[in-house]
# Entry
Amino acid sequence: MGSEIFGSFLTFDKTISIAPPRLALHAPPTQVLERRKAPRVPLKTSVKIANSREQSGSARLRNLSADGMQIRCHVDVAAMLYPHDARTDNDGHPIVHVTLRLSINRGAKLFNAAAALQHVRASRINPQECLVGLRFVGLSPHARYLLNAFFAHRSNESFPELMREDTA
# Structure
């Protein structure tokens, strides 16, 4: 996909304009409010993301929580997330589909979920990249199970003493 897709889009808390050669944003608020209900786990892995027209692109996962994720992607991929006739959630946020591998108990499990786009902002490091916030919507029981297993496994790695049975 080339850089010919431009326009203005209303996100959860601001309007953005995608234009070459970089993403232009209104000035961000001085203090960003945390919207996630669950803690974020920093994680770097590949993510495939597709819009409601089944156009897809690749991104890098920055962090994951039980209710959403943040990815880093090229501005062309961010522009693709806003097709003209996008399927949206009840609040008007475009719905996308994400696929990634989660490491659980020495194995990689394929995680698939629908997510509502919450925000897009330009990367301070690379003007050709964006940070995209996504909130999971309508997780299947299997997807919820995989998330729970992933976080339980991560807790066991970080705090193995909490996962041992009390033998006293």
User: Anything to note?
Assistant: Residues 7-29+42-163 form a domain with the Thrombin, subunit H fold (CATH 2.40.10.220). The chain is about 15% helix and 45% strand. Residues 1-33, 159-168 have pLDDT under 50 and may be disordered. The first strand starts at residue 7 and ends at 10.
